[in-house]
C-alpha cells in the first residue's frame, strides 16, 4: 500500500512557474522541475516556520550539518565531517563561484558533452572558454572517451573540470572505477574537479550512485562536490544547496568565493526544508523513485510500440528521457519547435547541450501518469504530422 499520492494532477498555472509559463493548451515537459507536491513532512516544516511569523536573518544550525552528514553517510556511504560543508543558495551559483574563484579569465574549463546547458553559461559568461571531451555514443548508449579526456586535460590552459554525476541529460550513472580514473588523470594535470551531484538521489530503485569524493584520496582532495535536496524533493524555488569540500585550502577558496558572491546565506525556509527532507523525507523519496521508474517503463513501452523511430537512451538516474530523433532528418531545434507548434507539447531541444545533442530531445517525465500519457500521445501526434 502506497503512503503518498503522485497521481493527482496539480494545476500549476498562474503560480509564476517558469515551467508552466506557457500558452493555454500547451503541456510543458522540459525544465527539470517535477509536477508533484513535495513531501508532506517538508510542507509541515515550512508551515511551522511560517507560523513563527518573524523572518529575519538566519544562521546555519547544527541540525543542517547533521542532516547532510547522516543522509550521505547512510544513503551514499560518504561520511561528511561538519567542516567539509558550506551552505549556498544553489548548485549553479556554486559552480559559477568556482569558475570565478578557481580559474582566471581566458582559461579553459573542461566539459564532457553533451551536458547540462547552464554549465556553458557559468563558463562563458565569466570570461572563460569551454573545452570539450565528447562522450562516445555507440549502439544507443554513452560511454566516456578516456583518450579524448586525456588529450583535453593535457592542455595547460585547463585548470577546472565540471563533472556531471549522475549525468544530465543522459541519465548515466558513472561507476567507481571510471571515476577513479578521471580523478587520477585530473590530479596528474593539476585540474580541480567540480562534481555536480544534484541528481544523485534520483536513481532507479535498487540502483545507487558513487559520490566522486568517496572514490579515493585523490578524488577527495581535488574536488568540490555540489549537492542539494532541490531536485529530489522539488524544492528549487527555496534556493537551498551545499558544497562538500574536503581539502582545507580548496575549501577556504570556495568559502571566500561564495561569501564574496553573496550566495552563502540562507533564506528563512532554506534550512528547515533541507533538514526535513534529509531527516523525514526518505520514505516519500523512495516511493517517488518507484513512481518515476514506472513512468520510465511506461514511456519505454509506448515508444517501442508506437514510435520505434525514436530511440530511448538507457539510463539509471534522473527523471529525464534522452530521445534520439535523428531518424527524422531534423535537428532537435526544428523537431522540438514543430512538436510544440503542432501539439503544444514543450520539450527541450538537445542542441543546447552541445556534443551530439542536435540529434536528441529531452523530455521530463516527473509527472502524474495521466500527464505522461498526454505527453506521449502528443508526441505521437506530432510524429504523424512529420511523416
Give the averaged pLDDT, no decimals.
98
* CATH second-level architecture of the largest domain: 3-Layer(aba) Sandwich
Distance between the termini: 44 Å
Strand order of the largest sheet: 2-10-9-8-7-3-4
Strand content: 5-15%
Largest sheet: 7 strands, mixed
The secondary-structure element order is EHHEHEHEEEHEHEHEHEHHHEEHEEEH
Q: What percent of the residues sit in helical stretches (DSSP H or I)?
A: 40-55%
Q: How would you name the CATH homologous superfamily of the largest domain? A: Type I PLP-dependent aspartate aminotransferase-like (Major domain)
Low-confidence stretches: none
CATH topology of the largest domain: Aspartate Aminotransferase, domain 2
Count of runs of 4 or more consecutive helical residues = 13
Structural class: alpha/beta
How would the global form be characterised? globular
β-strand number: 15
Q: Please indicate the count of domains.
A: 2
Question: In terms of quaternary structure, what is this?
Answer: single chain
Rg over alpha carbons: 21 Å
CATH class of the largest domain: Alpha Beta
Give a quick precis of the structure.
By secondary structure, this protein is an alpha/beta fold. It has helices at residues 40-52, 62-76, 91-102, 118-124, 146-153, 176-188, 217-221, 230-233, 248-260, 270-280, 282-306, 332-343, 369-386, and strands at 27-28, 85-88, 108-111, 129-132, 136-138, 141-143, 158-164, 192-196, 223-227, 241-244, 311-312, 320-324, 345-346, 348-349, 360-364. It contains 13 helices and 15 strands.
